[in-house]
Amino acid sequence: MIKNYTRKMLLSALIGFLGLTSLNAQVMLKEIPLAQQIESSSLVVEGKVISKESFWNADHTNIYTVNTVEVYKVFKGQPATTVQVVTKGGTVGTMAQKVSPSLNLDTNDVGVFTLTSDAVDHANAFRAYAGVQGFYKYDLNRNVVTNPFHKMEGVESVYTEILSKTKSNFSEVLKFDALELANKAAKSAKVLAPSSITYSPGEISAGTESVLTITGAGFGSVKGSVGFANSSDGGVSTTYALSTQVLTWTDTRITVEVPSLAGTGVITVVDANGDLSTSEDVLIVSFALLNNNNSGQAYLAQHYGDNGNGGFTWSQNSSFSANTAAAAAFLRALDTWRNETKINWMLGEDTSETDSGIDNLNLIGFSATLPEGYLGETIVYYDSCNSADWVVAEVDVLFTSEENWDYGPNLPFFDIDFESVALHELGHAHLLDHVIDSEDLMDFDIGPGQVTRTLSSTNKEAGDIIVAKSTTNSVCDYQLMTLYSGQLSVEEDVLESGIDLYPNPANEAFFLKKASSINLQSVVIYDVNGRLISKHDASNTSGVQTISLSGISKGLYFVNINSDLATITKKLIVK
């Protein structure tokens, strides 16, 4: 993929003088200008989310969440003290639904909503026009307003932008002085905020229960919160670990599990008084796995043998398969994932079904009814027999029929590369989340002419974790997934046949014996939840290498063995 960091930084510096930073197109999104959002909305309000509740639609095929918003100002439409904003996805009982991209609101989120009244299955409710683009979120601690395509310096700058479009003043429903709150936070931060923030390790994965240790001063004795660069918008906004993910907190030391939406960027520590400070150094997040957040806990899900034969079967809508170029591009993307990670994905018969929902189909198709600006949408449905173990029940992937796609296989010039987007969306179906790395296929950002049609070593590492968990970790009565039976690549076959891991089960250590023709690079050990346990340099190994298991508890682990040409995964039992 074309490197974008330098171009983005120069663009940001140039237009930053205007107080409005414009960002590049997000994967599966095209920008809907604020003027169009306001013109097409029936209601534009400033407000705060005060409660939320998930529900099934009337057909019991999709889960939605109704977010009750306390209204402060009305820029367009009829004044009201509260409005209900319906978003896609949520959890009801033992079923959950995650939609990408989707507007995910948290209680106490404050900002401006551009709303339209055609919400699904909920009387007197609204939806955000253009989905994730229909909410301009305030970060009062930093005095900024963020949106997938914009970052406005100064929370009151959004008023100026909106009023320049509406040509009329707003109506105040409830007093809320954003500037006063931002100034108070800034003044307090100058003298009371945490300081001297450092952390280890410097590189980590997200959504895998991997633990980051943060040291510094002035954290306080009462637990606050820890923020990370939000991978879903390239780090424009901050995403915070759940309270349950903040494991320990003292005045000088914090341990925290890195949440699934964390991307490469600085670390933010917010104390119990709301005062914050950020690290000078950038944390590298190499990959992220999707989590299902339920009742304040984050859970890593897995696949299972959904089709009764140890695999997972996709069905193309007949109009999608009739577009032979699109179907061929999708199949190339499907083959890339299943050949590289051995996820047992199969392609079944076509279907006439066009809508997403729980219907015993894993649908691939075009849609003319996606939210405004969406290039596509991936919907993952989870099921469980208890609160902790979640499996993927179904997945639907829809692409807009309105886009002038480039289907390849030649490289595109000015259009969006369909295969790259399909590979990215199948990454979500595989249970990978976004990263912040312009050369990685799971990066949130893609533009016309950009191409990413191969997996990186970290993509494969993440995929291997999910496949290993899905093929070995029995959940309730769900059938385990089996490995895709496609042929190993020549490089994988050489590595598989040239490596011997023993003893297994092991106690204090195990040994790796390799053929002389193999050039090992590293050995990485993960637990069944995908959490990194240890990483070992193997580049100087000659003959046999000893891998210590000191400090590792009894249980099942996965050992990724990386050569200069391939990666294989072996199961290890520690007794």
TrEMBL record:
Keywords assigned by UniProt, alphabetized: Signal
Statement: the UniProt record of this protein carries the keyword Acyltransferase: no
Record-annotated Secretion system C-terminal sorting domain positions: 501-574
One MF term in the entry's GO annotations: metallopeptidase activity
InterPro entries membership: Ig-like_fold, Ig_E-set, MetalloPept_cat_dom_sf, Secre_tail
Highest taxon of the lineage: Bacteria
Pfam families linked to this entry: Por_Secre_tail
Protein name according to UniProt: Metalloproteinase
Native source organism of the sequence: Algibacter lectus
